[in-house]
Design goal:
Elements: H1 4-7, E1 12-17, E2 29-34, H2 39-51, E3 56-59, E4 65-67, E5 72-78, E6 86-89, E7 92-96, H3 101-110, H4 126-132, E8 135-136, E9 139-140, H5 141-144, E10 145-151, E11 157-161, E12 167-168, E13 171-172, E14 179-186, H6 192-212, E15 218-222, H7 232-238, E16 245-246, E17 249-251, E18 258-261, H8 268-286, E19 295-297
Parallel strand pairs: 2-5, 3-5, 4-19
Antiparallel strand pairs: 1-2, 6-7, 7-14, 8-9, 10-11, 10-14, 12-13, 15-18, 16-17, 17-18
The protein binds flavin-adenine dinucleotide.
The site of flavin-adenine dinucleotide has 32 residues, from strand 3, helix 4, strand 8, strand 14 and strand 15.
Length: 300
């Protein structure tokens, strides 16, 4: 990466501990961690890394990621609060992809806008929410999506509007390796009555989340997607797997689809083993193959 410092002057860390970048707080080290400060830096960085054939992975808050113990060979690009701008343009909230989704949910109510109440207290930032088509309590990002901007894996400018980006259950049609730096959501102005209803809904969701989240434990939320017409948590519970433990990690007692880190000895291998064991047991007892929602990256 000879030319890197010539084209990229933002923060970079060699041998960065990945455990500091995810809600699981597990995993080895990344060869490089870049934390760009603006949209342009991301593009220049991607062009340079692509020229050098360096594997690249983008992350946001790391609330849906398990990094393996062997770390990540290549470059992690962290879309962080460095890119957390918010500008209102008519009905649109034009946001840096590093803005936490829950921050926008709160600030939009303050600006008399509605449409994001379902995202109260949701972990993760807008780039991650878009990539995952995050959703909860009957809402999802697809419904208010207006457009996004960023870069292709090779560092060419990328813009996608509502008609171009396709959404599925916890996935989108973003090109492989694309990095989103700006997300626009349509959040219309509300009258007094609908604003009051939206505030009530926001409070209800926030309380639900606080009650539901197993303490302040280290988890990545739902581990598996819900199979058609079923709930992954219900299946796991019905197999008697709540509390199942591998090393320093276990299936949550409160929400069976949450895996949590409970012991200081926990490793990413423990977590991957637990996830595989739970899926295997559900398949054996219920005949249903669970599909993972949590992303797993890196070397064993
Ligand atoms: C306690 C808890 C509860 C949760 N509840 C929910 C829930 O109710 N509903 C729900 O949908 N999710 C839930 N999640 C999962 C998670 O919060 C969401 O998926 C979130 O939107 C991920 O955002 P992030 O910034 O943390 O993304 P990360 O975990 O950092 O990344 C997730 C994926 O998105 C990609 N990505 C990240 N940023 C970008 C970017 N800028 N451009 C392109 N790709 C990018 C990454 O490469 C990765 O593949 C929960 C997680 C936790 C810990």
């Amino acid at each position: 990466m000879r030319d890197l410092r010539r084209v990229y002057r933002g923060p970079v860390c060699e041998g960065a501990p990945l455990s500091e970048l995810t809600s699981f707080q597990l995993g080895g080290r990344a060869d490089w961690l870049f934390t760009p400060e603006n949209h342009e830096q991301v593009g220049r960085l991607l062009t340079c890394l692509d020229d050098e054939d360096v594997p690249v992975l983008v992350i946001g808050e790391g609330s849906n990621i398990l990094f393996r113990d062997g770390g990540f060979r290549g470059a992690i690009i962290h879309i962080s609060r460095n890119l957390d701008s918010l500008e209102w343009r008519g009905e649109l909230a034009v946001c840096g992809a590093g803005l936490p989704t829950r921050t926008l949910a709160g600030r939009s109510l303050g600006a008399r806008r509605t449409g994001l109440e379902w995202a109260a207290c949701l972990p993760g930032n807008l780039g991650g929410a878009l990539h995952m088509n995050a959703g909860a309590y009957g809402g999802r990002i697809a419904e208010c999506f207006a457009g996004c901007r960023g870069w292709t894996a090779a560092g060419s400018p990328l813009e996608m509007g509502r008609d171009e980006l396709k959404f599925g259950y916890r996935r989108t049609s973003l090109p492989q390796g694309a990095i989103i730096t700006e997300v626009s959501l349509r959040l219309p102005q509300a009258g007094d009555e609908s604003l009051a209803a939206a505030r009530d809904r926001y409070k209800w969701v926030a309380e639900k989340r606080r009650a539901f989240r197993p303490g302040r434990l280290r988890t990545a939320g739902s581990t598996f997607k819900n199979p058609e017409g079923e709930h992954a948590g219900r299946l796991i519970d019905s197999c008697g797997l709540k509390g199942m433990r591998v090393g320093g990690v276990r299936v949550s007692d409160i929400h069976a689809n949450f895996m949590e880190v409970v012991g200081p000895e926990a490793t990413a291998t423990d977590m991957e083993t637990l996830i595989a064991a739970v899926a295997g047991e559900v398949k054996r007892q219920c005949g249903i193959s669970l599909e993972r929602e949590v992303k797993i990256y890196g070397e064993k």
